[in-house]
Amino acid sequence: MDQTINIYPTFGRVTTEQFNTSILPLKNKLYRFALSFLLNEDDAKDVVQEVMIKSWEKIQDISKIKNIEAWCITMTRNKALDVLRKKGRNHIDITSQVHIESSTASPHEQTSSIESMELIKQTIAALPENQRAVITLRDIEGYSYKEIALILELDLNHIKVLLHRARQQVKKKLEHIYLT
Q1: How confident is the model at residue 118 (pLDDT cuts 50, 70, 90)?
Q2: Which of 9, 66, 68, 142 measures 20 to 30 Å from 101, CA to CA?
């Protein structure tokens, strides 16, 4: 049964079902995205909590939102960037995104993979903010170009250019390290 809750009398009524089916399933994806910017689990959890609260408050306007996931990720990105600005940090961590299966990899392969991921992390950390965001959304989170354009509020062609440049810089850096 759909439970109706009156949050603010002036905003009308919303259902927990709307929130539970539209926004709550995004929680883990939002957390990973926030963590990739913040490198701090507590900060990432705080950002996601703020996004969940704001989403709950704004769910009355859910019909006006064309892409709820893009809307939530945009809020997450903006709040994460606010936290970074306050702390004076501006980098990304992708090593938490990689899970090495110990049963299928030798200790040498595990160590090599960890070192490679650390190198990729450092390379991505050196990218400009917009390139970091695009490469994270596309290559780590798997968003389409169109979704990334909506999330970052940039032109689709600009997204493609940013991703191409980011990948080229990462490739160039890795080739320089491994081939010298």
Answers
A1: confident
A2: 142
**CA dihedral angle for residue 173, residue 90, residue 58, residue 146, rounded to 10 degrees:** -20
Region 1-90: CATH code: 1.10.1740.10
Q: How many CB atoms lie within 10 A of CB 163?
A: 18
What is the pTM assigned to this prediction?
0.54
DSSP run (H or E) holding 7? strand 4-8
The structural domains of the chain, with segments of one domain joined by +, span 1-90, 107-180
Q: Which two tokens stand for residue 100?
A: 């090495």
Phi-psi region of 68 (alpha: psi -120 to 50; beta: other; left: phi over 0): alpha
Q: DSSP alpha helices (H): ranges in the chain?
A: 16-22, 27-38, 41-58, 68-87, 107-125, 129-135, 145-152, 156-179
Using alpha carbons, select from 147, 178, 175 the residue that is nearest to residue 163: 147
Residues in the chain: 180
Please, which residues have CB within 8 angstroms of residue 131's CB and are 6 or more apart in sequence? Answer: 162, 163, 165, 166, 169
Domain at 107-180, CATH class: mainly alpha
Q: What is the pLDDT of residues 6-64, one digit of tens each?
A: 443 333 445 788 788 888 999 999 998 888 778 789 999 999 999 998 888 877 766 77
Retrieve residue 18's tokens. Answer: 């709307």
